[in-house]
Specification:
about 130 residues; alpha+beta; six-stranded mixed sheet; 8 strands; about 20% helix
Length: about 130
């Protein structure tokens, strides 16, 4: 998140990575979808300041203070790695609830839900 290197991002993810969002009930799945989603999410956050990081080789937790629109929020990212050190699962928590609602409004135009209930990204706001 800090380097914002979208080129290297897919290389850090397993092919079947899952992303559990704070604003949709079913996870995003697959390297291509998640590698497209993360830059979209980054575009929704301003003033990102990571304040806490802890974990081990299998799990990493990152806590950041962020701004979404006019709202100050706390963001927690739980990263789970496979045996090769690639990110296999990402779970994001966001508080307060109003920040989650603001994020949902920003993301809504860019997300699409398939008939089977899975989520993907329609377009990145910079494209």
């Amino acid at each position: 998140m800090e380097t914002q290197d979208n080129e290297v991002l897919p290389e850090l993810l397993t092919p079947d990575v899952t992303f559990h969002s704070p604003v949709v009930y079913k996870p995003f799945a697959g390297r291509k979808v998640v590698a497209t989603l993360i830059p979209l999410l980054r575009s929704c956050f301003q003033n990102v300041n990571y304040s806490i990081e802890f974990g081990d080789a299998a799990t990493r937790t990152l806590v950041a203070e962020v701004t979404i629109g006019e709202l100050q929020a706390q963001n927690l990212q739980l990263l789970q790695f496979d045996a090769d050190g690639l990110i296999a699962d990402i779970t994001v928590f966001l508080r307060p609830l109003r920040a989650g609602l603001a994020l949902s409004r920003l993301l809504e135009p860019h997300l699409k839900k398939s008939k089977n209930g899975s989520w993907s990204v329609k377009a990145h706001p910079t494209t």
